Amino acid sequence: TPAGGSEAVVSTQSTGVAITLFGLVSTGEALKCIGTPAGGSEAAADQECATGVTACLGPVFDGSVATGISDQAQECAADAAAVTACTGTCASCTEDNCNALPALTDYSCSPYTLDGETWAAGDTAVTCKKETGTHGFCKTPKTTAVAADVNKYTGQAVCMKCPEDDANCFSDSSARAIMTGVILPVVAFLYALF
Does the reported pTM lie above 0.90? Predict the structure, then answer.
């Protein structure tokens, strides 16, 4: 063994241990989720989850409520059972800060009331929410709609599409309403010129 050989072996072993430990630290970083920090301030990014947590939880779009999002909190998943239970009004994901709120845009729907046998649109529009980049929908009663249906066409209930099996309801696209608001004035202007 050359002089200093034992020291060289120890040095090599130490380096190997250091590399191994570094690898463990590098690949074992805790997942970060958007969540409410200790102290109760508004949800913020980079809340470090506990060791072993592999998923973030967050709300999903829900156009039937004024906020446009479900009431699921933004948080680290407590355990595997929490991820399994995350369905319907909850979404789970596995990347850092992946549980952001969905981007939403406002649009308006007219509420309806039944006056005798006639459905009438209200003067005060309901502010609805839609996912940004998509079309919003408003429920409109058909002439066959009955008094028992009135709650479908007032408040936040008037937002979003009609149920597919509801033959008394028509789903009116917010995009069509926008186009009508733009095109009709133009047509009226051109008509006035001739």
Answer: no
